[in-house]
# Entry
Amino acid sequence: MLDFTGKVAFVTGAGSVGEGWGNGKATAVLLARRGAMVCGLDLDAGALQATTDILQQEGLAQNWLAIPCDMLDSAAVERAVAACLARFGRIDVLVNNVGGSAPGDPVSMPEEVWQQQLDLNLTSAFLGCKHVLPVMARQFDDTGKGGAIVNIGSVGSMTFQLGGRVSAGYAASKAGLVAFGRSTAIAYVQRGIRVNTVIPGSMHTPLVEHRLVKQLGTVDAAALIAKRHAAVPMGFMGDAWDVAHAVAFLASDEARYITATQLVVDGGMTAARTA
Ligand SMILES: NC(=O)c1ccc[n+]([C@@H]2O[C@H](COP(=O)([O-])OP(=O)(O)OC[C@H]3O[C@@H](n4cnc5c(N)ncnc54)[C@H](O)[C@@H]3O)[C@@H](O)[C@H]2O)c1
# Structure
């Protein structure tokens, strides 16, 4: 079940903004533990090194290629794909995980922040697909096996975030990611490539302590975390492993009939709260 032996995965944002487990880091490590060869990309070489250290400690260094790469630089992404092919020969799974939120509505948000949000959350996935889809399509022509793409969205595209905080650029770009995924899925449905989106809810990743506390101007991180736990119908935030397991399922052969759809991983949050 969910065995990735013989498969090669390309995971973007495979580091984490702080100590602990971000969604891309957990996904990269989970796929390697399940037998995949994994290319992990991150803008932050130090964050990527932390993932490398974990895989080395677990005896999985031979399953891993770390590639420092800015997912907004098309030529760099193209080089990363070439490096992955040179080392592992194919790409079966693409996880477009790079993303993050900035607060603001159309008036309070500077235009450059709006553009940065679209780039970080949407263009990063576009460039991942742009350079990996031809590889998967060639594999399909040669062997009948294409690949699976999983994008990481957010419930921020479906409901107000905690405390009614507005992040218009994040909401728009993550909603766009769902539309992008569905459209790409249909474009490649006959080339053996599936495209789906995992939509995490309020997850307890290092991002909460490192970014949200600052963004919200909160001094009491523990109070913010307690509030985030309480806002989830299950009573607690999920973590990066909950996202990673959903990604692994959608990327696996067991999900062979699932494409152009979304898997919400939010402890019931969107059902309980409407925008
Ligand atoms: N943490 C949550 O509560 C939550 C909720 C919903 C959705 N998400 C989504 O999950 C994804 C990952 O979130 P996380 O909490 O693990 O974040 P994170 O910031 O810990 O990890 C993301 C990684 O991406 C890297 N990165 C940023 N810009 C990059 C670029 N241009 N090129 C390459 N790498 C880049 C960062 O260096 C970082 O290591 C994001 O798309 C985020 O929007 C997170």
DSSP finds nine helices and seven strands in the chain.
